[in-house]
């Protein structure tokens, strides 16, 4: 950078991209009617928005109306929009619910529908289930390895028995907000670092 640029604070394109706020998508993993995932996703977004360190947005798989992979000619607009949405994100928070000890079919299908748009980005996982959705979360980590997504360590795990009243109304125990923030610290760090790799 030259003397005048230094004086007037002109930044290069590269510097600009490093100082731009990260875009982080909060991906709702379930699509069934009556699902609990919007309550959990909105709670995470509320905590995240208070930080001011990234642009956080809810990304609802249901909105894209993805067909089951391989059953159509692939020209549905939702497939292109899904890839475009992911391509514009620097990091992900997966809201994961446990179905038969794994992730939902809807989330697996959505994961399979993109490749490059996932690569060299970071992710955090917030899960729920009878044992905090732990088994589903661990399955997701294996899938993310193949998609070259770096999943951070801290993992808020919510219990269907103690964090939801009657198994439906989300009333998270106080301690979880701290764990979400710890996960977000790691996610923002890694999402920012991986921008260099891309
Ligand atoms: C098909 C199906 C399988 C499930 N299997 C499990 C399971 O293996 N372990 C568990 O803890 N909860 C299981 N559950 C309970 C779900 O975790 C619970 O219903 C949760 O609310 C689902 O997320 P959603 O409301 O966002 O769809 C299952 C629910 C469904 C619908």
TrEMBL record:
Transmembrane segments: none
Pfam families, per database record: FMN_red
Domain NADPH-dependent FMN reductase-like positions: 23-158
Domain of life: Bacteria
Family under the similarity heading: Belongs to the azoreductase type 2 family.
Descriptive protein name: NAD(P)H-dependent FMN reductase
